[in-house]
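Asp/Glu/hydantoin racemase (Occultella glacieicola), 216 aa
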Amino acid sequence: MTRISFIHTGAVVIPTIAELAARHLPGVEAHHLLDDKIVADLGRDAEGTGVRERLLDLGRAARAAGADAIMFSCSSISGYAAGLADELGVPVLRIDEAMADEAIGAGARIAVIATLPTTLAPTAALLRERAELAARSPELHEVIVAGAFEAVSGGDRARHDELVGAAIVEWAAQADVVVLAQASMAGAAATVSVDVPVLTSPELGVRRAAEVLARG
């Protein structure tokens, strides 16, 4: 059976990814690996805490378990994907790449909302990378939602969603499309209604994985 390994930096997204994999990857076995300290270590000292080496070790574990492809479920680590793919010998996918491509096609003004700087920076970099490939030059607005990460870290998901929802409403009035930089923010999008697309990475990313696996 074909297997895809998801590498996570937070346990909160695993049920969402598992449900999406069951829906969009029929006949594919989903395997989950977690290092829940990577985001904190990225913010402190990525090189000194060996983030790349840890991701490579997780990738090797995935390969040893029979993974035909690997997907990073966290935007904070997406920048490591290309280099590790060469070493691991299988596709290493970024869950936010499909979201970035859709955002680039949705309009010239893109608001990128995150709850952590360590996620905002790589998501903005990915958008610029995909825009360059598409020969476009969007106007990016990079937004940190103060207090939202602290709220969800403390177990207050409702407060997190309230803060993120308010940011979505504010920036939807100023942009052509709103991008939520973290997979864990997807639930907040359902709490508000706005007149522009609000893009989240989990479903778009898993659907992109299905396309890659279908191509063999």
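The mean pLDDT is 94. The domain at 97-201 is CATH 3.40.50.1860 (Rossmann fold). ok done for today
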